[in-house]
């Protein structure tokens, strides 16, 4: 008798997503219980993000052990992030000016949402604040608030110092290795609940928004998704080719992660799995544990593309003609604010509020698109996840340490995974379950 094939996590998530949509649409009056279930899943993921970020960065930096090498890698990484996010912004602005999705929309037909919290946040964050606030005054407080910028900054310095003390620091390094592996194992445990969390989150989203709110803004949503698809296939495809990999091979390996990110609207929900999968894909741990957390803060490609599209869209809704100079100003402001707002809750709205205010456009326009922001944010999150994953490959290739022999589907287990028996090889063939490991 042949053994029945085990259903993979990706398949279970697709089923959960489909059932959630159906439940939310047909039983919207009985969807109140879905939100707490979905929130519990998201909270369970977020509780492990900070210890994984801190421990893996310390391990990765201590492995490099040279501040000059860390600085060199950091410089290359930030330059790459700036180039890609700028391309995303330019693409968004260009598409908005060509397709004009905001022209002809009746403003009275769109549901308006209070955005005062976002606009007040925007006025208190500048690019200067970003660099000042990079340095924590109390690392325990930063850890408690999950301020990833400050956590990353301290972890990098801690890792460099740990490498500098030599043999006496080995027990500390072993401690963080134990913490990281334990968190990876805890991630596997939590991920068994992913299909149920996805069901609850999708069901609640559909029950709340339905299709009515989408219709007046359907053109914006449709154009955004088509533009993001173009960006992934063409821009990321070209970058992947230059890096010597097949983009679609990487995407197949990340299928479960993309589904989770899409349905939960949170890139944090797949952070631990991205770390481990990209290491299995051929990126050394010292690279992936630095590039991915940094990318979660500075390389939100999907969010950058959306912001480039949304600003002209709001101007078009209000009948405001944007000159070429005005458009250049918007691009320049977005290039700054999209970095300066990193790590702020509701980052896309905060960036948009800041950009609209600084370019003289009506900030109130945000309230007009807030109703469909969740629908658009799910797609943005997927692009963000793909962007940070690909960035780790690019950096490994630039450093000359990328193992192309591992860039296959399905992923091969790492040697330590086999030895420690933490990997599930049967399920690995379907969705690369890990022993396992920042956006808006």
Automatic annotation (TrEMBL):
What protein does this entry describe? Answer: Proton/sodium-glutamate symport protein
What's one GO BP annotation on this UniProt entry?
dicarboxylic acid transport
**What is the organism field in this record?**
Desulfosporosinus acididurans
Could you give a GO molecular-function term held by this entry? symporter activity
What cellular component GO annotations does this protein have? plasma membrane
Classification of source organism: Bacteria, Bacillati, Bacillota, Clostridia, Eubacteriales
- Domain of life of the organism in this record? Bacteria
From the Swiss-Prot or TrEMBL record, state where the protein is found.
Answer: Cell membrane
Q: How does it sit in the membrane?
A: Multi-pass membrane protein
